[in-house]
Amino acid sequence: MDPVIQPTYLSGLNEMQKQAVVHTEGPSIVVAGAGSGKTKVLTARIAHILKEKKATPDQILALTFTNKAAAEMRHRITKIVGNGAQAIWLGTFHSVFVKLLRREANTLGYPTHFSIYDTDDSKSLIKQITKSLALDDKVYKPGIILGRISYAKNRLITPEVYAADPTYQKEDSHMRMARFSEVFLRYTNHCLQAGAMDFDDLLVQTYKLLYDYPALSTKYQQQFRYLFIDEFQDTNLVQYRIAKKLASCHQNICVVGDDAQSIYAFRGADIQNILHFSHDYPNHQMIKLEQNYRSTRHIVEAANRIISHNEHQLKKKVWTDNPVGPPLAVLRAISDMEESRLVVDAIMAEKLNGQLLYRDFVILYRTNNQSRNFEEALRKKNIPYRIIGGLSFYQRKEVKDLLAYLRFVVNYNDTEAFRRIINFPRRGIGPTTIDKIFAMVAETKLPLWTLLRNINDYLSGATAAAVSRFVTLIHTATLKLANENAYAIANYMAQASGLLKELHEDKTVEGLTRYEHIQELLNSIKQFVDHPENRDPSLGSFLQEIALITSADKEDANEDSLTLMTIHASKGLEFKYVYLVGMEEELFPSSMMLGSNADLEEERRLFYVAVTRAQIQLTLSYALSRYRFGKLANVKPSRFLQEIGWTSHRGGKTTTPQKPVTTINDPVRKPVAASVSSSLSTVSTNKLQVGNTVRHLHFGVGKVLQLVETADMHKAVILFHKFGEKTLLLNYAKLEILPPK
Q1: Does the annotation count 231 as an active-site position?
Q2: What span, in angstroms and rounded, lies between the C-alpha atoms of 235 and 267?
Q3: Which candidate, 15, 413, 454, 642, has a CA 20 to 30 Å from the CA of 121?
């Protein structure tokens, strides 16, 4: 293409990126290394198809894994092609399939406005099922059962097939859950009867629609002339088969991903989907995006060293024209508590020296429970922070209460919503009456709403009157569905139900906060209704949208606070300064991932993801001892540290010739370090005595109160002038014995 007349959306792309944009016909795989600009490429490719291939927006299906990625892509495409981008079928797998399923729900036996159960709804339903079967709730735990149901669904295993498989029955018996298949069947049947789908069903029912109904399959195969899938390495079996079915007509399937960032096997993601793409589509074109625009050369080269240890991969060599940057830093701590202090001190020093913002920093860890020490250290320093993956706004009780009312208005069969709202605020309808209602539903075979509307035939007195008032409340709101928008109905329900009154009368701090949360929910519904690009302001449309929101989608990126998150949650994000903590054997890599080479390779890919989040500086930290199961245990540095070029002798100094990794025992560039002797060394245990005055590199001057010796450990209890009493391992603590005054 003549560079003089090339479209503006091609400007600024390198040659490989341009190839990925203009090669639109036939199957193609774009192997996009970390920070290689794949979102820009995907955006330009869709714009190219709309402008040069004269495709209509509704002929394009683009699937992502996060709402944020989808919103960013749509925004960029709109800037290039205008408002026509709104008609593109672009979104997460779940949001796009909800749109498709709403159209075809009746074919599958679901109402058009079927409910979408979140994890809490599913667990509540499972509790009801296990209770009705008189199963031990200490064995049949809702979380475990839901996880196993999800495992089966993601492998397209129906309850009937599961129950007939002797292998699964043997596994269930081993787990003391011999009646799991019965729970699975009841759960599935109940969801159908309640007109509800959980997140796995949104995929499974789409698969069923395409594979069991040929006419509908042909309809969508012909409609979607171009199919895009982002993060293809994260697809599971169901997603893979849906994509293959949809692409079978035109064969214009473009998958984008990086096998080196496949880290969701525990969710059912199958790395073989991307590794075997060439086998599925022999006439494919492979394009590799290997230039990294995000990170310094030291970080890129470290990432390459890491992933080179994996046997199963699509070979690529990521490179960058960015500056070399500072070496990777390794912080060594005596204990997990000291690790948190060192990291927080290092962040404060880096922030002050570089005049940076807190949002430039992130602390990444392998498991959620590692956050506690860091939270405490941050609070002590009054550093604002946020934890990604915490309680979402839409998971708060009072918010879910109002949403349950709205769900029941659009779907009378939603029994989980009904259980939540029937006696909140209190109406004098207790658990015994609720159980009686469901028993009557089972006995009469009547739909729940039909029975409720005729409740006087089954109950009497004050209870029947209370249920009748509830029915009138819901019915009045339902009459508004045809003519009023989501906000009008939600505002009516918040007041008419008594929810707002209940919370407003609670004058405690918690009560006022809950009231404010309801007001914020109403504000969000008003914003939804008033949004200029929203073509459907109905209540059903709003409920569909918020059912698919994740906690990360609601984070305020402009807030100046330090971020804490698991490595899994960090995928797709980038930060100027990354602190990757807990780099120890059996923590990272996890002890649960050392059983096979495949598991270890997944852990290494997770490490690769963590490293490639960093733009300017990557600091890794590890402790020499950590509390595990209530006991202080000695631990070893992670093998991954060696794999990036870090080598430590007793003094903890790097021996790598080019020094891409530096070991530091002091918080980086901390002003106080200048006043501390650089000659501090590990003290021989036979020289130290109770009463000695000593100096520590970080804690300063203190007095030895007690010496403790065990078979494998020598410790000293020291009272430091500024930090109070500390217990140090003498094998590692660098102390200087000061002469008596």
Answers
A1: yes
A2: 10
A3: 454
Q: Which residues contact 496 (CB under 8 A, 6 or more apart)?
A: 473, 476, 477
Q: Do 115 and 124 meet the contact criterion of CB atoms below 8 Å apart?
A: no
- 673 secondary structure, DSSP code: G
DSSP annotation of 497 reads: T
Please give the backbone phi and psi of residue 382, each rounded to the nearest 5 degrees, phi first. 55, 40
The upper half-sphere exposure of residue 698, i.e. CA atoms within 13 Å in the direction of its Cβ, equals 25
Cα-flanking dihedrals φ and ψ of residue 292, to 5°? Answer: -95, 125
Closest C-alpha among 34, 31, 15 to residue 315: 31
| Cα–Cα distance, 215 to 355 (Å, whole number) | 62
Distance spanning both ends of the chain, measured CA to CA? 82
Contact 154, 273 (CB under 8 A): no
Element holding 718 (H helix, E strand): strand 714-720
pLDDT at 648 over 90: no
Which residue in the list 17, 24, 38, 130 is annotated as catalytic? 38
pLDDT digits (tens, 9 = 90+) for 348-372: 989 888 889 999 999 999 988 788 8
Which of 118, 172, 198, 230 is the catalytic position?
A: 230
Of 646, 629, 628, give the one whose Cα is nearest residue 637: 646
Does residue 358 contact residue 351 with C-beta atoms inside 8 Å?
A: yes
Report the alpha-carbon distance of residue 616 to residue 14 in Å, rounded: 22
Per the annotation, the verdict on 613 as an active-site residue is yes
Told to judge if 38 belongs to the known catalytic residues of this protein, a careful annotator would answer yes
Q: Each residue of 125-158: pLDDT tens digit?
A: 999 999 999 999 889 999 999 999 999 999 999 9
Question: Which one from 118, 172, 200, 231 is the annotated catalytic residue?
Answer: 231
By C-alpha distance, which of 533, 532, 536, 539 is closest to 487?
539
Number of Cβ atoms within 10 Å of the Cβ of 235: 26
29, with CB counted inside 10 A (0-12, 13-18, 19+), is buried
Catalytic residue among 186, 605, 613, 670: 613
Query: Does residue 241 carry a catalytic annotation?
Result: no
Residue 372 burial (CB count, 10 A): 11
**Greater confidence, 13 or 9?**
13
pTM: 0.77
Q: How far is CA 606 from the centre of its chain?
A: 14
Measured distance CA(231)–CA(273) in Å, rounded: 11
Q: Can you tell me the distance from the alpha carbon of 608 to that of 262, in angstroms, rounded to the nearest whole number?
A: 10
> Would you state the pLDDT for residue 673?
28
Residue 192 neighbours by CB under 8 Å, 6+ apart: 109, 110
Q: How confident is the model at residue 284 (pLDDT cuts 50, 70, 90)?
A: very high
Q: Using an 8 Å Cβ cutoff, are 250 and 225 in contact?
A: yes
- Catalytic status, residue 506: no
Token pair recorded at residue 308: 């080179």
CA distances from 661 to 107, 329, 520, 654 (A): 60, 6, 47, 7
Residue 629: predicted pLDDT: 62
Helix 397-410 × helix 539-547 angle, to 10° = 130
Give the C-alpha separation, 588 to 321, whole Å: 31
Q: Which of 66, 235, 261, 291 is catalytic?
A: 261
Average per-residue pLDDT in the chain?
86
- Pair of tokens at residue 502: 């209940």
Provide, rounded to the nearest whole percent, the portion of the chain with pLDDT above 90. Answer: 56
pLDDT value at 657 more than 70: no
- Beta strands per DSSP E along 308-403: 328-333, 361-365, 385-387
Cβ-proximal residues to 711 (8 Å cutoff; 6+ apart), any chain: none
pLDDT per residue as tens digits for the range 422-465: 999 999 999 999 999 999 998 999 999 999 999 999 998 999 99
Tell me, yes or no, if 136 is annotated catalytic. Answer: no
Q: Per-residue pLDDT tens for 659-677?
A: 566 665 543 333 222 222 3
Residue 425 has a pLDDT of 92
Closest C-alpha to 618, from 292, 294, 298, 261: 298
Window from 33-47, 301-315, 700-714 with minimum mean pLDDT:
700-714
